[in-house]
Amino acid sequence: MKTKTGIPSSLKYGLVFFVLSQVLLELFLPLSLVYNYRIDYNIIKDNLTDINRVLDRLKLYIQRNGIEDYIIIIGDSVAYSGPGGPLQSVSYYMNQISREKSLPPVFNLAIPAAQMGDFYTLLLMLDQKGISTDKVIINLLYAGFVKRDPDPPVVYWLERELKRLDPVSYAQVADALLASNENKNRPDPFETFLEVYVYNWIPVLRYRDFLRAGLFKAFGAYNEVTGDIRPWYEKPYLKSLLQDPVYKRQFDPAPFALDDSNPNVFFLKRIAEHQRGKSLLLFMSPINRELMAEEVSKPGFLQNFVSLNDFLKDLASEYSFVYRDLSNVVPAHLFSDHLHLVSEGYRYFAGILWKEILNSGILHSSKAACRITARYGVDPKLWILDSSKATCPVDPAVLRFDLFRRSWGMNLRTVSDLRDGQEVA
Amino acid sequence: MGFHSPRFFVLLLMAAAFFFIAKGKRLWVLAIFDALFYLNAGILDLLLLFGAAAVTFFSGIRSRGPRKKAWALLGVTANLLNLAFFKYYHFILGNVSRLIPVPDMLLKMNPILPIGISFYTFQLVSYLVDVYRDEVPPCRSFLLFWVYISFFGQVIAGPIMRASDFIPQVERTERYTFDLGRIKSGVALFTVGLVKKLVFADTLAPFVDTFFARAADLSSIDLWIAGYLFAFQIYFDFSAYSDMALGIGTVFGYELAKNFDSPYVSQNPPEFWRRWHITLSTWIRDYLYIPLGGSRRGFARGIFNVVIAMTISGLWHGAAWNFVLWGLYHGLLSAAHRIWRNILGNRSFARKLAGFPFPLFNSLVFMQFTVVGWILFRMRDLETLFRAVRKMLTFSDLTYGPHVWYYVILVSGLYILHLIEYFVRRNAHSLSSFWDNNVPAPIKGLVYAGIVFVLCVFLRPKENAFIYFKF
Question: How many angstroms separate the Cα of A70 from the Cα of each of A111, A130, A400?
Answer without folding.
Answer: 19, 13, 21
